[in-house]
Specification:
By secondary structure, the protein is mostly beta strands. Helix content is about 5%, strand content about 30%. The radius of gyration is 18 Å and the shape is globular.
């Protein structure tokens, strides 16, 4: 029997700094417009190369200082997407950009599959060493929606369900679950281009059990980009490891001001 190799990223105790999000630092050239009128205009504008689907207008963006490292490259995993993360007293902010695509994001509705988009695991109290989720552990899934001109024949769902959305998923083998949330409070917006898309999301503090950055300035975080066409990309580990259920495999993140 051939020897089993150790996952290279398990040899490191990764930690990162998450910078705060200040709305005054918004890159106004790159973000979707902040007014409902402008958002409607963007939504209605459709060209061969791009169009936007806005769950709600946003008045923020994340810059290079919020970009997350791709530790999985140490294990030879290719990088097809870039992710950003930031925090504020009113919640957590995320952004993801994926390129190299030739087909739209896939949405599985309630069929049990994992839809394309961004998945984020957050432990608001960063409890190292635990292997089963507590009530402070969350798994959010952000779906970008689909371009208006896409052939949705593979989606057994209606138009409303194909809009950008965010949900709180269950974590397998969890000891406890976080408080129930109103998914409508999660803001998700997306912009499509010919070879990919950009997704923005904001999880308000009311949707994060135990979120108190003034008292607990260290959290655990894990980020995964799900794509049916290009494959899954995570921040540090390969999909063969059970980071979907084991908080000890998540990254320590210090909330920097």
């Amino acid at each position: 029997m051939a020897p089993r190799l150790i996952e290279p990223t398990l040899l490191f105790d990764f930690s990162i700094n998450l910078n705060s999000v200040a709305r005054a630092e918004v890159d106004r050239k790159k973000r979707p417009r902040a007014t409902a009128k402008a958002a409607k205009k963007i939504t209605e504008k459709t060209t061969e190369s791009s169009n936007s689907r806005l769950h709600s207008p946003i008045d923020w963006d994340l810059d290079q200082s919020h970009q997350l490292p791709h530790f999985a490259a140490l294990a030879g995993y290719a990088s097809r997407a870039t992710a950003w993360a930031g925090w504020a007293s009113d919640g957590m902010y995320f952004k993801m950009r994926i390129t190299g695509k030739s087909s739209p994001p896939r949405f599985y509705g309630n069929t049990g599959g994992v839809s394309d988009g961004l998945r984020v695991w957050i432990d608001t109290r960063s409890s190292p060493g635990i292997h089963r989720a507590t009530r402070f552990c969350h798994c959010f899934h952000f779906f970008p929606g689909q371009p208006e001109d896409v052939d949705s024949s593979f989606d057994e769902t209606d138009e409303v369900s194909r809009q950008p959305r965010g949900v709180l998923d269950t974590i397998p083998r969890a000891r406890e679950t976080p408080a129930a949330i109103e998914s409508e409070k999660i803001i998700v917006s997306s912009h499509f281009e010919k070879d990919g898309y950009t997704l923005w999301s904001h999880v308000p503090a009311s949707c994060l059990t135990g979120y108190a950055p003034d008292q607990f300035d260290v959290i655990s975080l894990f980020v995964e980009v799900v794509d049916f066409e290009l494959g899954t990309q995570s921040i540090s580990l390969g999909p063969e490891l059970r980071y979907v259920e084991d908080p000890s495999l998540w990254i320590r993140a210090e909330l920097s001001k």
